[in-house]
Amino acid sequence: MGTRQSTIDHLLDQLAAAGPVSVRKMFGEYCLYLAGKPVGLVCDDQLFLKPTEAARPLLKSADEKPPYPGGKPYFHIDPDHWDEREWLVDLVRTTAGALPEPAPKPAPRPKAG
Asked: How many alpha carbons fall within 13 Å on the CB side of residue 32?
């Protein structure tokens, strides 16, 4: 089915107060980033956040499921709660704070010339 651009636009608008939030299209779906740190996925118009113990108490339900067949379980965030902006921002910030920093990208190797 795929994720509609309107879903991405709505989520980015709702999460604007969290800080530098962005998405990157990957394999037909989207990875969600906060300050360059991957915090979740948007697949088939559904929001999935990486599971962390710090964010678990903030969840309105403990629904965990894979965002795609064969994937690891993520916290599934029900679309009914996306309009609770302050809660969603807090949830994404808490998730990002509990995750390790991404590994730095290796420096490009010089071209043989």
From this structure: 31
Using DSSP's 3-state secondary structure scheme, residue 9 falls into helix
Q: Is 65 helix (H, G, I), strand (E, B) or coil?
A: strand
* CATH number of the domain within which 31 lies: 3.30.1460.30
pLDDT in tens, the chain (113 residues): 689 999 999 999 999 999 999 999 988 899 999 999 999 999 999 999 999 999 999 998 768 999 999 999 999 999 999 999 999 999 999 999 999 988 887 888 888 76
The total of structural domains in the chain comes to 1
Give domain status of residue 49, yes or no: yes
Provide the residue range defining the domain that includes 87: 5-98
DSSP 69-103: TTPPPEEEE-GGGTT-HHHHHHHHHHHHHHSPPPP
- Taking CB atoms within 8 Å and a gap of at least 24, the contacts of 67-73 are 67/29, 67/41, 67/43, 68/29, 68/43
Give the C-alpha separation, 52 to 108, whole Å: 33
